[in-house]
Fold these 4 entries.
Entry 1:
Amino acid sequence: ISRRTFLQGSAALGGAFAFGAGMAARAGAAPDPQVLTAQLTQAQIASDGVTPKVMTYGLGDATTNGMPPVLRMRMGEPYAARLINKLDEPTTVHWHGLRIPNAMDGVPEMTQPYVYPGDPFDYIFTPPDAGTFWYHPHCNTLTQMGSGLTGVIVVENPDDPVFDAEIVLNLRDWRLGKGGVFIDPFKPRDAARGGTYGTVRTANWQQEPSYDAPAGGLVRVRIAATDVTRIYTVGLEGAEAMVVALDANPVDKPFPLDRYDVGPGQRIDLVVRMPDNEGATVKLGNLRGSHPWTIANFRATGQSLKRDIRDVAALPANPIAEADLSVATRVPIDLTATAEHKATPSICGSLGYTFWAINKVPWPGDTPDPIAPIEEMKLGKSYVLQIANRTPHAHPIHLHGMSFRILNSNKRTFLPPPTDTILLLPDEQAEIALVADNLGDWVFHCHIIEHQKTGMTGYFKVV
Ligand code: C2O
Ligand code: CU
């Protein structure tokens, strides 16, 4: 069988994969890989032109209207994907939030080699947790993610309650100028502050899309903030909704959505109770700042299903270990701005500056220069990271490979369930706890990609 026939065969199987994977897992065999092609395309994003040189993922070669597909996996069952790089630069895939083996984590130089143009790379792992996650490259990230390479992952738990419908939203911006062409991905003066914003705001690559949902029904809305810069404050108009999960992890007790901050890399799962009247529209908005705007609309269709929002119960929790605080090792972590200096060039792109540092060390995270880990952790031991944001900016700080619990903070009263990303507020000091239960080198970085790429990156080594 030639490589070509093999690829075509796998691509054709793409749609049926969920079943195939399940059966293979029960039989104890490795599943057939889903072929995930990183590729160049063009897409209608702005209203005044088709954007060329968009980067996307396809299943085989086929994209979902240009957009990276929503990847569906099942908790506890093996998943395999063969990345084929059809870009003209190296790339990798990082599975954001999935606690999987280090060699599958997608960080070039640290956990795997670069995947050069034309080359494949096989990922295989078993997601231990259910929920809403996402995937993106970890090489030249400002350009690659900014150009389109951000997709949503849904890990299903067979024990999840069934809802009347599900809507998956991938929220992100695009830096496009006249005619829809990409403009400079960042401005250095903004990189040294809150980050550079896009010019066109989308959900699922569309400006203010509308989705039909059953009237009077309970709809699970999975929202992933995959933008390189924007922090959203989501709120709903025209319906009630319960927050059921944050960053994939179920909240102990679902609570009504008022407004909630979702930083780059974070996710929020809502259950929306659609209005009873056919045609009634619910607006999901971004309430941040002084000019709120609509992210997406949900339109009630059909006869009311007359569901009761009080029936929304907690989702089954994910199996995340509780740290033992009585013996935990404390690790101070200072996030600071740093004197501006030139960064070393990297195969994975360099923005040319360092503006930020973790414990005084600025590192962009994907260069081969050997920096020391922030801390060497012992497998199975508990740690409390005492994080101090000594800057006047918010930083969504993400840890690969392990989830942590926020213990306390000088800036918040509500403590979310365990997470992989904490949106640190300006001048916030927070303690987070984790069990170092995954071997390897795990990067820890700000998910405002300009901050990550200009120094706000470090890593932990679990031995
Ligand atoms: Cu979402 Cu280091 O990544
Ligand atoms: Cu940051």
Entry 2:
Amino acid sequence: MARVQFEHIYKRFQKVEVVRDINIDIKDKEFMVFVGPSGCGKSTCLRMVAGLEEPSEGEIYIGDRMVNGVDPKDRDIAMVFQNYALYPHMTVFDNMAFGLKLRHFPKPEIKKRVEEAAGILGLEALLKRKPKELSGGQRQRVALGRAIVREAQVFLMDEPLSNLDAKLRVETRANIIKLHQRIQTTTIYVTHDQVEAMTMGDRIAVLNGGIIQQIGAPQELYDHPANLFVAGFIGTPS
Ligand code: ADP
Ligand code: MG
């Protein structure tokens, strides 16, 4: 089970409170989107699950395990960032294998996982190429592949499409949804784009000013926005 729970999570930098009393229960296999304007605390929430920041108050659970204070590499998460830097001198295979090599996985296991992930993402024919020989969309798929091979319990994605042009964004969005349907890893996906949120999320948490304004399925938010902020942000002025 890869449920992720936030229980009364607060985060302060110096004395500035950037996240306030976040409570959310993300179900096993769920694709949860955190959406809200720039600076509302989305990345901070994700980074606390990853262990890159510690909450000032409250507890975070991955599965049944309280992970406060647990080292990021012991959290069984895989993160896809906005700036998905690939190693330019390494092949696609080696880029995808890198994290597993660091963790001393046996070679045959690495080969099996990379080939499986390549199959899922349609990268089989590109494994021997270098990043500069790939299109932007193919590179983004390699970045996703690096996360998949970890076979982590939870995927964390922080605006993974924001460096892509509009056409590629739509294509990669579809790839991520397909990927999730196939492997069903619990995912927290951060974006400031409401269209992305509405088309991708099983549920969406709308944040503003470090506070969750509403959590619900896209249709619920659309039909019954909890307040003017949600109505305006989701875009249903009537
Ligand atoms: P979002 O991802 O929604 O754009 P962030 O979570 O990155 O927002 O940031 C939320 C707020 O916290 C912002 O005001 C940001 O400036 C502040 N913040 C984020 N990280 C730090 C940090 N390490 N030190 C101080 N302030 C930070
Ligand atoms: Mg951010």
Entry 3:
Amino acid sequence: MILSPSLLSSDFGRLADELKALEQAGLKWVHWDVMDGMFVPNITLGAPVIKRLRKESNLFFDVHLMVQQPERYVDDFVDAGADMVVIHAEATNHLERTIAEIKRKGAKAGVALNPHTPLSVLEYVLDELDMVLIMSVNPGFGGQKFIPFSMRKVAELSGMIKERGLSTLIQVDGGVDPDNTAELVRNGADVLVSGSAFFGFPPYAERLKTFEEVARSA
Ligand code: DX5
Ligand code: ZN
């Protein structure tokens, strides 16, 4: 299990320090929530912020674009230093082309699905993906409650991936905490995003240990 803390719940006034603290605490990934005020109600941050903070961190930058027509910004985010660019299936008419473009630029490519979006949209593109993000809340805000049917969705996606002999990662984002971590891992989740249940419980090294212990017990 990889834990990818969502900076949405961190202190935006001290992002450089937060990134250093995560690295020191033993985290390997960090999750950037980019919101455009169109695909989701909120606006957060964009490529210039990530580009500046890339200089401060060796963490794996997992960039979740909650942005309408993400194809407009793929170049910017890869140039800013995103290691993985995750786009929403609901946000583009040209999913295959945008995935190909992310990979052509040299980053890893992921597709995110809102809670109501069926796995069948992945039918023809799954083999091209490094990761699928199952949203377990409706995107736009931190601190929401985990939607229970997401568990079944993770299990079904895991079945699809195994059936095809792929090594695509399954990421889960929204309302993840130590109480649902074991079941998520049992159902096939590889990468867990946690915002409020991570940053709200310092010290970070201890919190990481808690998540890892629960995951190991799965
Ligand atoms: C929701 C974001 C999530 C969010 C998770 O729109 O994509 O990454 O920050 O926060 P928690 O863990 O608090 O649900
Ligand atoms: Zn996210």
Entry 4:
Amino acid sequence: MSLSLFSLAGKIALITGSGQGIGLALAEGLSEAGAHVVLNGRDKAKLEAAAKTISAAGRKVSVAAFDVTDQATVEAGVATIEAEIGPIDILINNAGMQKRAPFTEFPVEGWHEVMATNLHSVFYVTQAVTKRMVPRKRGKIISIGSVMSELGRATIIPYTASKGAVKMMTRGLAAELGKHNIQANAIGPGYFTTEINKALIADEAFSAWVSSRTPAGRWGETKELVGAAIFLSSAASDYVNGHLLMVDGGLTAVV
Ligand code: NDP
């Protein structure tokens, strides 16, 4: 057993939604493990600022700004990365959003927006990437699910539906692409202190409930997702396929 099993040296990793939050933490972690990371999001200036910090640490980083909810834009973005940077070895489907409203009042536009960002994007980006991985007979697909891939929760029904679907998409991808030496797995984060949870963090009662509901007794820090992402990106996980790895301080293991 050697630590080189976890090395990502020479690998190219595209991480969607990586200008901030969990995506940025994963980009920093994968680049530290040796990967050339490609940052994605809709705000080019934000991505360039994040890239500056990563390259200042002597690591390889590029920027590919595109909206993951538009299939043609995704295909063009992936084609450009492959032509200008090289073959994508690792894809992390991380871009996501959340909207809250009681189900009976949930606006249909909100439903479509959440589905487009959290689910349709995973189809577009994964298809564009895996059709190029299949002939190369290697690749790692990691999709960011959630504890909501497993649990229901009021007022965020499109979010839970999208994250549940990400879990099942991961299993289907494992079934179809395993024979091409492509592993598709997912990570299920618990509650982490990022922009998506700004309102929840500000709500003291809710924030305390998260800590008491979680066996770890606290919210997660984004750097605590890095180990799982490196494992699922590396040779260490070559016989792990279709798995949803919860990184939630134990939340989904207990009631
Ligand atoms: P943030 O809101 O901080 O980050 C979301 C990222 O997604 C941003 O970088 C945003 O970039 C990007 N993004 C959103 N829409 C698009 C789009 N259409 N095209 C490209 N990029 C897009 O949240 P987190 O970092 O917390 O979330 C990351 C992932 O982790 C999400 O999938 C989320 O559901 C999941 N997750 C988070 C948990 C948490 O507790 N924080 C728990 C469980 C899962 P920009 O707006 O600049 O385009």
